[in-house]
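Re: [help] complex structure
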Amino acid sequence: TLQHLFKQIFKASLEIQEDDHRKALLVSRKKHPEDTLVSINNVKVGDGRQRLIAGPCSVESYEQVEAVAKTLKQEGIKFLRGGAFKPRTSPYDFQGLGEEGLKILKDVAKKYDLSVISEIVNPKDIEMALDYVDVIQIGARNMQNFELLKAAGSVDKPVLLKRGLSATIEEFINAAEYIHAGGNGNIMLCERGIRTYEKATRNTLDISAVPILKQETHLPVWVDVTHSTGRRDLLLPTAKAALAIGADGVMAEVHPDPAVALSDSAQQMDIPQFQNFVSSLVESGLYKREEEVVNQK
Amino acid sequence: TLQHLFKQIFKASLEIQEDDHRKALLVSRKKHPEDTLVSINNVKVGDGRQRLIAGPCSVESYEQVEAVAKTLKQEGIKFLRGGAFKPRTSPYDFQGLGEEGLKILKDVAKKYDLSVISEIVNPKDIEMALDYVDVIQIGARNMQNFELLKAAGSVDKPVLLKRGLSATIEEFINAAEYIHAGGNGNIMLCERGIRTYEKATRNTLDISAVPILKQETHLPVWVDVTHSTGRRDLLLPTAKAALAIGADGVMAEVHPDPAVALSDSAQQMDIPQFQNFVSSLVESGLYKREEEVVNQK
Amino acid sequence: TLQHLFKQIFKASLEIQEDDHRKALLVSRKKHPEDTLVSINNVKVGDGRQRLIAGPCSVESYEQVEAVAKTLKQEGIKFLRGGAFKPRTSPYDFQGLGEEGLKILKDVAKKYDLSVISEIVNPKDIEMALDYVDVIQIGARNMQNFELLKAAGSVDKPVLLKRGLSATIEEFINAAEYIHAGGNGNIMLCERGIRTYEKATRNTLDISAVPILKQETHLPVWVDVTHSTGRRDLLLPTAKAALAIGADGVMAEVHPDPAVALSDSAQQMDIPQFQNFVSSLVESGLYKREEEVVNQK
Amino acid sequence: TLQHLFKQIFKASLEIQEDDHRKALLVSRKKHPEDTLVSINNVKVGDGRQRLIAGPCSVESYEQVEAVAKTLKQEGIKFLRGGAFKPRTSPYDFQGLGEEGLKILKDVAKKYDLSVISEIVNPKDIEMALDYVDVIQIGARNMQNFELLKAAGSVDKPVLLKRGLSATIEEFINAAEYIHAGGNGNIMLCERGIRTYEKATRNTLDISAVPILKQETHLPVWVDVTHSTGRRDLLLPTAKAALAIGADGVMAEVHPDPAVALSDSAQQMDIPQFQNFVSSLVESGLYKREEEVVNQK
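Output below.
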């Protein structure tokens, strides 16, 4: 029938259009079928080994960062995160130590042979940050701060792009495209929960986003279990889910003394909790320690 | 200071109230710390072994159901699902075979030694269903159909309660309480995705709900990967996540010929796809086949 | 170009399909371009005059209902609402007086020459309700309780169908179609807020739904300002918005003593507040009292 | 009872804390009970007269802007909006004319005695913009671009702050506080729809946000009917709702030839449609033209 014929043409046209559109994106797997490996101080994220990023929500002092870094070193973890520029809902909340915080991260990371990931929030600070960080993080609230994306696209430094608070996957991919279109293809994506009506968790971890992003793009995909759940008791189970579903790694917040943390005090692990978190992941069979650490333990 | 004192009292009061409330619920872990095992024809759901439920969205014919049941038997799966009463958005969509569908399920299940799970949608049909099903399913659209919950609470038959389209976890737990309060404590919960703004998936699988429900209640928790994602290509990765996070089992839809299915044609697996799904879960190390099947394979 | 041609065919096919679908629905304006007037004891809802429905959340006693009814009479309002069967999140909350509550409503309404609107929650109670109510209400939690919709479609009594907690407009229209397809075309729709991430209000009033429902269907459309906002202080402004945007009427809850109400105590108006609510609507020019009342005042 | 006493203390403590918090905010009505009037070239927004802002989504040419400006002048409208820096989902969509676009707006506005409202997206452009615009707009995607808010707070120019795509009202108020805390109290808020599951409209207009923002803050509140609905057929009804509920004004997009617009072609009005929009608002009694225009018509 004519009706049926129309439907067939309709579907065919739809697929052609969608294909064309996706093919056009530099970050799409259609454009570039092989996985992109993002190299950070000789560690290649996306190579099949699943990794961890950890560190305090905010950089508060050299001692605080060092306490965490020492633990990361012992656990064989290579990536240290910490916030120096903090986007906070209220102007009266702690706004971060700024460049001073980046300096602390760099000094500690050098001592413990770690790579630094830290968020930059102003396009004008991207250049400055190159001196301190190994990975520029662009946070959820800035996922569609296109000026910042363009600035990050203009430099030669890996970028960790977090999904916006209520960004669709399509918008997330397009945000990554802003960075790639600017010339910087070293992009990693990070699912960090989306805003829904459910209030049992701070956000709702959209775990399905991981396989979708892996299919649609050729970029490594991380899961931030701290911000997706906002609950310390859910970090371990959601990390297992993230590793099982195929994320390239998991990010979590650790603080030597969460009770006095200047931000996110309710959801950061303390150091023994973090050590237990790593051990539990190892025991579950879903996570493997680096070999040198295995030999020591 | 006075301010501080108030805050302390505030927090203490809050905790007391919340504790009291949760303690009062029959389904809460505070009331009953041990896991509830739901016994279905000698299989004990909740005993630590993770299981699968599978079957077609709608019962269409004896032959269709048998084709699936035969496969389940071969794979060592004990639970056959199929819809006889179908709650459909439009009155002009296929509404299910009704009691005739339940009869088909029962006959096929008997032949292949399986247990039947099927949805009931009208309180007056609960009694009739006892003759046919081993587990009464209450679907997402009826999670707050309190008359149906009360009817299910008045009989002595296991109930699989699915989370509502946009139910909070608290509402979900209270819906289960309606069944328990009626006298029927054989309740299993099923996360099946929630409604959000994201349209890449049919619903958003709220994977964190699994550990929360396990903590807050003593009931077994399933994950329906078919309805949470609505995408055949996401069934395997989300099933892995569900098993890794600690669900008691995974539910998925299988149809001998999805292209001609009377409902959900885009998201059901065909039989070879389902066999591959089970094998892949086994290979991942996250799922174990029943022993008798292992011996044969 | 071929690409362009495809796009044109695509759009044409899409429109044909959508048109066909909507044309098929009995409730759609394409099927029936004229407004449906729903006649309730000689009052014709949908005739251009905007009306009010008011009454307590739950029927608690004859005296309680009478206090409200007397006020309605004085204000020239024709519709008395009150809940006798209450769908409540917890089984331990007040569940309503049941048939006894319907009897109270009928007796009071007769004395004050009002029409009764009350919610029915079990398909088996629809027949019984015919003796007591002038309008059967189907509540938000039951919008996709298709058995209840079918039962309401099988009788000859006006139905007020409330939008589900997180129903799309398309699902809402299809739910109405279930009633019409059963043979009962006397349907009124009621927007009552949808579930979103925003917590400043109990739900988010989707005010745009009113003109969309008026365009897509030929049915009268009400706005329930009490449940959409859950805040007494927002009843008046949202009622103004509802009247300005073209709703056929506004529903609000009134209780002689909200502080001791058995449900919804935080959001019901007391009698002086309700009188002030009506006066303020009249003063705004958006609402007109019935003539007989104007003559007396 | 002890339980009851705790509840009383609990409530009292809660209120004290909330009061204290709100009192602290410079934008809160508790801090400053009188309405703030924002003066823009001698027009005082917030003085009780409800106003319109109109103009094209993107500035495309002098002629295009002039065609709209001429119409605004005839209709007695004082505020011309137009986008020169366009935050677009895809990097391959039209990004705006930049400073050249601002220059066009300024030249046309001068000729027709209008005030210019235009969005700025990079903190470094705020100073430059002072030469061209009368009101700096901060768009939805930048509502939590705190560096941009701080930059806007450091200058002496009115700011129109749009609510974020899925910002809570509390976050919206805190974003305004960033501007005020920087020293600039000339802030106007703009509700523009929030992201929900409903897809009949581009966003869901949260009409209740208007009275809440008027209660909680002392700032003028606008409603952008174009972006909230994304549908030309809903602009008039939602504008009526916005005026009825007490917004200080309504913003809408107008383009001389929407079919060829470089952005938002599906939702802009053409000039005759806009003239009809204004006339219909006047006829509804909800909007009053400026006196000089009334005299001429």
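The first strand of chain A starts at residue 38 and ends at 40.
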